[in-house]
Structure formats: structure tokens, C-alpha cells
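Schema walkthrough. Field components (list of strings):
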Amino acid sequence: MSDLKTMSPGAEAPGRVVSAPVPDDGLARSRLGWLTLSPAFLWWGVFLATPLGLILVSSFFRRGPFGGVVYEFTLDNYTRAIDPLYLRVLWYSVRMALLTTAICLLVGYPAAYFIATRTSARMRNALLVLVILPFWTNFLIRTYAWIVLLNREGVINRTLQAAGLTDAPLPLLYNDFAIVLGLVYGYLPLMILPLYAALERLNPEIRESAEDLGSRPLRILRTITVPLIVPGIVAGCVFVFVPSLGNFPVPQLLGGGRRIMMGNLINQQFLDARDWPFGSTLALMLMLILMLLLVVQSRVLRRGREIGIDV
Amino acid sequence: MSESRAGTAGWLKVHMGLLFGFLYLPLVVLVVLSFNDARRSVVSWQGFSTRWYGEVFDDPQILRALGTTFVIAALATLLSVVLGTLLALGLERHTRSSVLDGAVYFPILVPDIVTGIALLSFYSLIHFTLGTGSIVIAHSVWGIAFAAAIIRTRLRGFDRSIEEASLDLGVKEIPTFLRITLPVIMPGIVSAALVVFTLSVDEFVIAYFTAGQTVTFPIQIYSMIRFGITPEINAVATLLLAFSMLLIVAALYLNRPRPDGMPELAGGRT
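Field assembly_structure (string):
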């Protein structure tokens, strides 16, 4: 990556003939820079930053009688958000998201390792495409597929009973198992890709020399590979944990709406209870968790760079 | 050494087999069942039939939702690709700010439910009518980020000396951009357009909050799924899966080589 950066246009790559100073006095440059960068950032300023600021503001106000916000300062939404009733939902969501992340890491690591180290270039691209492809399809349909498989009359129960392995249908759907399964299914590619990217950059000679010196595979994994790909691991964990925490279709469809996660709670507050200020407060909690994770991630990246891992 | 290495390789291959089974079998089951000639949700095979596809194309609600979704996706794609191309050019050539670099990924990282409710609150505050326009804007928020990320990978491999030659020969900046730069980065732009279009067609959560009374295709699917399993949903699902996969494969193909390009494209949709 570092050599890619220095090769990037703008930096003068050694050996390249740089033609006579193109009409590129500082002024023209900065004007072009402004013209190219500002439309997108203005757009985001209006349609992302302002709305996010608005939910911060409305978290300090009261709900309107029919939805909306009444501009009367209050801290009620915050005291309510730390009520054990809601903290339990948060804790449950965090547990489910953590479990999802852990499973994705355990399942995703060997896959990323295989793709990065045991395949030819052609094969590697094919496998990566196969890993991402389901991720780019409709999330609801991927979730629905599991309803078809897991329900009482579903494919798995029918098969098990037909094979005489079970007498009665197993309760596979509408429980925590189904929710975690749905989340893992939805977000696994987001774990595999950053792990792959980190492993692919790793110099295989380090591992090989450890192997030649007689280190066991697990020891190599623990003492060499994992410490060197920590940034990839952290990125994968953030990519899986954050959307799992705020997901609402999966707990709704695969959990049967019995256990609710943060996403369902926010959805309820906005569309059913019509308590937008409280819903905003809950959404801010998600944002706060995201920000904390991003800070951790940038720390890890910086530390990685200090000890010479460049990602 | 080679023995343990071979042993590990065997286990890894089994693992890969199981992984792809896990990723694809559920989808294969859907596709197979969409051709099942069975009256209700039934899983047992009753013979091959394409009648459910016929029913899908006879269902005015589904067709209307599909039309709405295509209009939204086309507009969101146009907006995202124009702003995303400019942004990619700016980031790649006119700034080295790592803050701006990082900021570009922020719209993708914000959980979709948060983007959805934040925009809903904002639209309601400024009395913006919910419908096609509000969803187009909502989708462009992350669409721009995806488009810029993909187009940047193309710009990174760009040999600027051809632009400089054109400028040296006295061609002005804008014609140079239109005749030199744009054609070279066009595969990246088309690839970005395909990706954003697919994402917009598939996107549910943000549309759900910002749609008002408008019914997009995923919103239609959500309400169908909540009523239970039907062979019709299987057919709809199969069509949508085929559509998304086709477009994404085309996008990946257009934007191929570059070993570091893959993770960029796969950036992360939350």
C-alpha cells in the first residue's frame, strides 16, 4: 500500500518524466480541488451531517402528541434510555452482535487464509467474487431463504424427518440461534475481505522460516500471523459488529419479533410509538458505539504503523 | 513440515467447501422451489413449473413496486456517479488530507437505521414530501461514497502523462478532461454505476423510513414475507438474485485487475 501511495498521481514517481510545469499554479489547483470536492461534501453536509445533528438536538426535546418533536428542553429521554428495561435491550443486542462477530471471525479466518495463501491468482479472484456475491444481493431475500429452511415445515425439518433422524420438527426458527445465524449469513463477507486483504500483504517468508525452524502451525498463528494482521481483524470486527447491532429485519423475521434488539426498538419508537425524541436518543447510542469503535480502530492502525505494519 | 502443511490444506479445503455450501445452498433452495408446481408454501416437490413467474408478472402491485424502484435506482445512480466522479478526482488529485479520505467512508459506516431515521426527522422538519425524491436523496448519501471509492481505484492506475501531453499541446482543461480523462476512467464509472444501481434496487431499511406511502420493491417483498412463505416470493426472490448477481459480476469484470481493488469495491455496506 505504501508504495502505491507514492506512485499515486500527484507525487512525482522517480524516473517518470514530468513535463514542463503544466498550467498548474497553486490557484488553479485549489480552485479545481474546491470544485471537485465541494459538491459531494456539501451534499453530505445537508443530507447526512444536518440530519445526524438534528437527531442529536431532538434527543433533548419532548415528543409531540402525534409524532414529531416539541421544542421543550428535557433530559427525560436520557434518563429513560438508561432504564434497566432499555439497558437490557442494549445488552442483549451487544451480546448477539458480539456472538455474530466471533463466529464470523472463526469461520472467516480460515477462509481468508486459504484464499490469500493457498491459491493461484486466477483462483483467488474467483473465490473472492464467490465470497462477495451473496453480499451484494437483497438482504431480505437472504434472510427469507433461512425462513424457508428453518421453519417447522421447512426444508431442514422435512429432510430430518424424512431421513428418520427426528420424530417431530425441531424449533429452529424464532429464537436466538436463528437470529445469530441470519446475522452471520448476512455479514460474513464483511469479515473475510479485510482479513484477506491483511493476509495477502503478509510476507509469506516470515511464516515459512518459522515453519522451517520447526514451529507448530498454531504457534505460528498466535505469535506471527495474528499480531501482524490485527488491523485487518479489527476492521472486519467493526464491519460485522456495527451493522449487526443496528439490524432490525433479522430479529423481526428470524426472531419472530419476540426478542427485540436496538434496531427493533428504534424502529418501534419511530414508526409505532411515534416517540421520535426517544428513538433519536437510542440511535445516538448506536452512533456513540460506532464512534468508539472507530477511535479504537484508528489507534490500532497507528500503532500498527509505528511497529511497521502498513495497511 | 510438508506433512502438516498438507494436512492443514486438506482441512482448509473442507472448510471452504462448507463455507460455500453455507453461502449458496439457501439461495439454491429458493431458486429450486421457485419452479415447484405446488399450491402453497409446500416444500415437497410437485413437479416443474414456471407458473409462479407468470403470477409475478401478472401482479400489478409487484410491477408497480418494481417500476418505482427502477426509477429511484436510476436517479440515485446518476446523482451518485456524477458527484462521486468529481469527489474521486478531487481526493485523488487535489488533496492529501487523510481526514477527507476517512470522511468518505463515514456515510457507508453509519448504520442504515440511523441514516433512515435521521433523514426522516430532517425531511419532516423541512416539510419535504416523502416519496421517490426523498428515497433518491437518501440512497445517494451512501451511493456517492461507493461510487467515489470504486472510481478512485481506476484513477490510481491512471497515467497522467497523457493528460499532460494534451495540456501541453494547448487543449484546455475541460476538453482534456472530456476527451482524455473521462474515456480512460469510464470502465470505473460504469462499474460504479452498476454497483450503486444494484445497491439501490436492493436497499430496504433506509427506503423503509424515508418512503412515506411509496412502495419500493424491497418494501413490497418485506410485506409479502411478513405474511409467510409463498411460491410467488420464491420466484420474485430468484429474479432479484439473478438480476443483482448479473450486475455485480459485470461491475467486477469491468473494474477487474488491480489486486488491491477488490477490498475497495467490497468496502462495506452497513
